[in-house]
Amino acid sequence: MYFKEKHGFKEDFLWGSASAAYQVEGAAEEDGKGRSNWDEFVRIPGKTFKATTGDVAVDHYHRFKEDIALMAEMGLKTYRFSVSWPRIYPKGKGQVNEKGLQFYDDVIDECLKYGIEPMVTMYHWDLPQTLQEEYCGWESRNIIDDYENYAITLFKRYGKKVKYWITLNEQNVFTNNGWVIAAHPPGKKNDMKMFYQVNHHANIAHAKAVLAFRKLVPGGKIGASFAFNPSYAIDCNPINAMAKADYDDLQSFWWMDVYAYGHYPKAAFKYLEAQGFAPKFEDGDEELMKEAAQVDFMGVNYYQTVVVEYNPIDGVGASEINTTGKKGISQISGKPGLYKNPANPHLKTTDWDWTIDPMGIRMCCRTITSRYDLPVVISENGLGAFDKKTEDNKIHDDYRIVYLKAHIEELKEAVNEGCEIIAYCTWSITDLLSWQNGYQKRYGFIYVDRQEEEGASMDRYKKDSFYWYQDVIKTNGEEL
């Protein structure tokens, strides 16, 4: 849209960056922390790049004061981080671990000391392993009460210090990767019925947490972070336009409609009923979901868009993820009889074959504004790349600056178009363990001296993008 006059970001706009406990903390068995599903999963041969683990990660557990001081030097307004459930409840429930609670007290207090708004993600994929062993984790409704108990513990402990809360990070990703393509715990493949049932359990857990939050944290804001990949129909052929509608219902609105409206999209639910995959409801589920809607904001983790084309009934299914960084090896994936996602010839890609489409972040905001009339928190947006440190300890990541600049420019356009955007959190503040991609895929403004092997110095070095983002924050996005 064209506007003669353009508005900038509000004065209280939250310029931020993000991390996740398993990816940065390390200290896997220190101070009473229990084992997580990821502590076990990474030890299965072939599941991660060069068998990397988060046992040490980038040692944020011992270096959080140093890291937060660097955030303050950058001028960060908010820091989004996750709490490790097994650090709070080593067995997932029962006896709480006071040392775990105190660690996050210290992180929060350190942020507040510098005027940085803490933004807490309650679940960023590290499930207590005991719950996986006892009742198969998210596959059982037992998880609902245990997650609610964990959430209430956090609300009571940190509710007076923390305003912004995220219940679940990328529910669509951890469930798809865990039960469809076997890339995440518990490593199951094409278990579609369980995939939808697991998501339903997560939705009920989210709902119970939201209802508890409203009682315990008055004035606080809560939402979920969704990995949103907006779609384009490959052309104007009606069959491809309908394939896009199917994709949107099953890959986007299946989750966001629950967060915002408290129900599933009707056409998608009818389709899943016919396939025998629809989730089983218990008494009270429908009412609970509706009572918990709507969230205070929609969290968006945005990295790429997708192209949608009709996929015949004998067409392609799910494909493997590129975890190597060898460009061009990804394959087309899809759902037979519905849609497939071919490459977009108009866009460049990262070394991991993710499309680079700055306008997509604007599309996220426009869709959420029009469909849900909700404020938006960009809870993740960033570029994973092979960053190299020079002999004089410099990291020239101009490609990251170009990437982020283009995305922020599109966010400005979204603001002009009426979208209420509360925060922009880059992924990530420091380099970290990129799940199954290891440490070679770097996202941070701060370079961490480590490779796949353990034993490196873990020293921190500011990349060129660090100083660039510092200026962006200083000028509230006016100078990019």
UniProtKB/TrEMBL annotation:
Active site residues of this protein: 380
GO biological process, one term: carbohydrate catabolic process
An example Gene Ontology CC term for this record: cytosol
EC category name: hydrolase
E.C. number: 3.2.1.86
Similarity comment text for this entry: Belongs to the glycosyl hydrolase 1 family.
Protein name, UniProt field: Aryl-phospho-beta-D-glucosidase BglC
The organism of origin for this protein: Clostridium vincentii
Lineage, top ranks: Bacteria, Bacillati, Bacillota, Clostridia, Eubacteriales
This protein's encoding gene: bglC_3
